[in-house]
Design a protein that fits this description.
The complex is a heterodimer of chains A (about 240) and B (about 280).
Chain A lengths: L1 H19 L6 E3 L4 E3 L6 E6 L4 E6 L5 E5 L2 E5 L1 H4 L6 E5 L15 E10 L6 E7 L3 E3 L5 E2 L15 E2 L7 E8 L11 E2 L12 E6 L6 E10 L9 E2 L1 E8 L2
Antiparallel strand pairs in A: 1-2, 3-4, 5-6, 7-8, 8-16, 9-15, 9-18, 10-11, 10-17, 12-14, 13-16
Chain B lengths: L3 E6 L2 E6 L4 E10 L5 E9 L1 E3 L4 E3 L9 E5 L10 E3 L3 E11 L7 E10 L10 E14 L9 E9 L3 E2 L4 E10 L5 E2 L2 E7 L2 E7 L4 E2 L4 E3 L9 E3 L5 E9 L8 E8 L1 H20 L4
Parallel strand pairs in B: 2-11, 13-22
Antiparallel strand pairs in B: 1-3, 3-9, 4-8, 4-10, 5-6, 7-9, 10-11, 12-14, 14-19, 14-20, 15-18, 16-17, 16-21, 21-22
The chains are: A mainly beta (about 240), B mainly beta (about 280).
Chain lengths: ~240, ~280
Amino acid sequence: MKIKIIIFILFVAIIYDLSSTTSLAQSFTSPSYHIDWGNFNMTGGKKSSTNYILTDSVGQNAPGQYNSAGYTVKAGFQYAYIQDYKFSFSIDNLDINFGTLSPSVGNTQTNNISITTPTGHGYEIFTSQNSPLATLNINTTIPDTTCDNNDCDQTTSGVWVDNNTYGFGFNATGNGTSNYFVDSTYFRQFANQQTGESPQIFMSENNPVKNHSAKITYKINISPLQPEGSYQNNINFTAVPKY
Amino acid sequence: MSDFNITISPAQIEYLVKPNATIIQAYEINNNSSQDIYLNSEVLPFLPQGNSGSVVYQNIPVNPNINFSLNNSDLILGQPFLLKANSKQQLVLKIKTSNNTSLTDSYYTFFVSQVQKQNNANFPQASGKIGSHILLSVTNTENISTKGSINLFKITPKIKDVFFSRLQFSGEVKNDSNYFLKTSGQITLTKNDQVLKEIKLQPLNVLANYYRQIDCQNLDNCTLKGPFWPGKYTVTLSFDQNLKIPSQSISFFVLPLSPIIFILLLVGIIFGFKKLFPKA
């Protein structure tokens, strides 16, 4: 009788042991696919309070870093955690349409630039033009302004209020522009890619910002001798975070 | 009226990578505009410029040992793609280092740019471009050794008053290693060997063999407002030990200038009053 009881207990123990080694892995199936997952985490993510931010993952099997020649495996949700970084840049009107220009009158058009940067990053915005304003057949150009005192270029701003000063340039007023333009009477040229000039920063801040914006004023003043025609070019604005 | 309104995430990635290894990084590109847009992607190397995190892209030789491509099945780097209005696209960037990659840092920006239309209009047309930085440290070890020094550390103004002075701390850190480091550390203000204030530094990246100005957490322009007790103060700029940046201290005096001037003025007024209106 005792032997039978011992055999029965052993049998139950073996069954329990076998059943308790069932894998906890997950699998997803569809009519076409069956995907086995090595493990399935219980919870994980980013929790925050006023003073603390906690990122965690619970249930990851064998988390950590594993190295071999040429490869590093960082296992666990903590390693795959994606930074909550967003970097946004907008320009509200891309068509800088001046219509018909009148000679010796400063014709202006505006648009607005807006920027948001993630925690820990400021930003800088570069600008350049593919060429000076030119007619489609590139026979005639409107030169870049050199401002009233012949003292501005793509890197330096100068006062441009005189109606007898001709050319094309821009001003920026608003967040992050005060290091580049003293006020709305100061203008500068767009860097000209055609002659190898590098894009220039005209708006920047060192700290994170949310929806900071600046108004860009484009100005053309043509002489009475400027030939008739449709003048155009492409102006690029490039935003990058501060590293 | 056409516009450009793009978000890229993440704004920066920082990786340690071995030679002959591959990294996969997913970027999310959001078109926040109500108009469809054609975009293109490219990766350009950059160099640091100035001491506040600026970059420059011109005339930088491309490292042939670090290769970039898109892992998307339907896209390649440099191929324009359409991003519908108010929608998003994941771009999966694959970064591969060859066996010959030098054990040092390389810095890049992953750009998403608006494809410029053939400009047949009779006016200037603008376009937008947005970038996300890639800081890549090629190394055989996870524990990178860095070293640096303090280029500059100063406190302004020169003459410090108990009531009317604001103490502004400024400094610049030089990274003397081949790998970028973060300015993890603090500014400690002490008087009579007692710590009065500890100001945490912003953990800014100082790129390899380059320099960067420090910034403070929770303190605008690293400026401390008064009033201060008169006496001798010592301020120390120190960094986390693993950075191997020797700390630097400066001592200065805060003087009771405004109270002295006030008392002198008061005495002068009383003295003058007595001179002008002597007792009859």
